[in-house]
Amino acid sequence: MPLGDSFTISPEELKEIFARLQPYLPKYLKKIDARSYGLRFEFEPFTGREEEPSKPSTHNDPKLSYVREPENEAEHLLREKAGEVLFNLYDAAREEWKDAVYVADLKAAVKDAPALWRTYQHELKALGAAFDYLRTPEAATEWPSAISRLVDAQDRTKASAVAFDRRAEEIAEVHGKHLYADLGRDAALKAAGYPEAKDWNIAEADHYGRNHYSSWDTNLPLEEQTRRLIEQQDAHVAKVGRLSGAAASN
């Protein structure tokens, strides 16, 4: 059985190695499987709030401390292999623990984000309906009232966007903190219990709180997306007003 790029380990050696490593195996280790490609470690699920897994020192252990190759070649090799097994075990545990920390941090950050997102979606839909109504013949008979309802819908949509952005910024900060995690962002949110979060608009953390966004900026916060949408609607309404006035004067 291969062990990393340097060693091959026999079943007899593996048995002896684990006998020597018993005092150093963590309590959260459930099982070790010897596979054709190497060892597979299975751990109890991490909460992400434990101490970071850290390989204990074996320097003072008479059965694991370093032995020079010229002194005892067989013992030197066995102890090197034991050290590699112990390193790989704690390295695998650390990677799983890191993912658990990411998920735990997301659970703490999400809070009421699902409700805030639903509110934004509801208000955005209402805004679209209010704007579309302006194109109907009925709107012409109550234009000031229809415009007033549009403005109210714009204000509610902007407020809901700002509320969601506050929560989204916290989530984005967690994503940034765990930038190099094995788990992707959607996968981490799903593991935290929010599979629907793949549809949420979460920008990069440094995109929040800006005073200016360029025209080529992508993945914008909802507040900026809403501002641009309202700007387009206002420009359309103003243009309709100008053209209608010009037509009436003629």
The termini sit apart by 91 Å
What class, by secondary structure content? mainly alpha
**What Rg is obtained from the alpha carbons, in whole angstroms?**
30 Å
Helix and strand run: EEHEEHHHHHH
Residues in β-strands, percent: 5-15%
**Mean pLDDT across residues:** 93
Helix fraction bin: 55-70%
Number of helices: 7
Which parts are unreliable, with pLDDT below 50 for 5 consecutive residues or more? none
The major β-sheet equals: 2 strands, antiparallel
The global form is: rod-shaped
Number of strands: 4
Strand order across the biggest sheet? 1-2
What layout of secondary structure does this protein have?
Blueprint: E1 2-3, E2 7-8, H1 11-21, E3 29-35, E4 38-43, H2 73-110, H3 113-133, H4 137-140, H5 143-177, H6 185-191, H7 222-249
Antiparallel strand pairs: 1-2, 3-4
Quick structural gist:
The protein has about 250 residues and is mainly alpha-helical.
Task: Outline the structure in words.
The chain contains seven helices and four strands, in the order E-E-H-E-E-H-H-H-H-H-H. It has 250 residues and is mainly alpha-helical. It has a two-stranded antiparallel sheet. A hairpin with a 3-residue loop joins strand 1 (2-3) and strand 2 (7-8). The N and C termini lie far apart (91 Å). The mean pLDDT is 93.
Question: Any key phrases for this structure?
Answer:
250 residues, mainly alpha, two-stranded antiparallel ribbon, two-stranded antiparallel sheet
